[in-house]
Amino acid sequence: MATVFDIAAHIRSRIGDPGRMKLNKLAYYVQAWSLVWREQPAFQERIEAWKDGPVVSELWTCQQHRNSEDIANGRPLSPDLAAHVDRVLVAYGHMTSEQLRDLSHVEDPWALARVGTPAGAASDAEISHDAMVKFYGHRWIEAERDHVAATGEPAFRGSVKEFEAFLAE
After folding, report:
1. pLDDT for 54-92, tens place per residue?
2. Cα–Cα distance between 132 and 110 in angstroms, integer?
3. Rounded distance between C-alpha atoms, residue 122 and residue 52, angstroms
4. C-alpha distances out from residue 114 to 17, 52, 55, 72, 121, Å
5. Which of 42, 13, 14 is nearest to 30 (CA)?
6. Integer distance in angstroms from the first to the last C-alpha of the chain?
7. How far apart are CA 103 and CA 39, in angstroms?
8. CA pair distance 154, 151, nearest whole angstrom
9. What is the pTM for the complete model shown?
């Protein structure tokens, strides 16, 4: 399985160095949509609900203290995962760090992980895979229905009903 550093290296190869905040938000969206679209995590590292949005602490620390050495040594991604990351970059890569932070703040996974934490306070609460699947999965159902209506073909491997059943588990 890829690491968050492998994902970060791929992102940098596509859009250059986006900075700490944007790279962490992009890694978060790669993970969230991998859980929905690929039905598996893109990486194993934990995502935390920091005050400025989702952060993979290992990635943040690497960028801050070790000159991004682990990112520079990131391994190439499988073709499937590379295509997935590229797909996420099409949707989110043009956004600024601040736009990604603001977007994550109005979405349930980050907000629910911070319940009980005062605004602006530090937190290491985990944003769970389940929370990501539920939130983004429901968003995907809406998009999937639109796609089927427009093309007659599902983008998801199964039907919308199968996907809804998957989310209900």
Report:
1. 999 999 988 887 656 778 788 999 999 999 999 999 999
2. 9
3. 9
4. 28, 11, 13, 32, 9
5. 42
6. 25
7. 23
8. 8
9. 0.87
Task: State the residue for tokens 């970060």.
Answer: 8
Rounded to 5 degrees, what angle do the CA atoms 80, 57, 17 make?
Answer: 60
Q: How far apart are CA 124 and CA 126, in angstroms?
A: 6
Q: Which residues pair with 54 in a beta bridge?
A: 49
Q: Which tokens go with 122?
A: 């530090």
Contact 63/20 with Cβ under 8 angstroms? yes
Q: What does the block give as tokens for 123? A: 């937190």
Indicate left, alpha or beta for 62 from its phi (over 0: left) and psi (-120 to 50: alpha). Answer: alpha
Residues with Cβ within 8 Å of 78's Cβ and at least 6 positions away in sequence, in order, are 2
29-46 pLDDT, tens digit each? 999 999 998 999 999 999
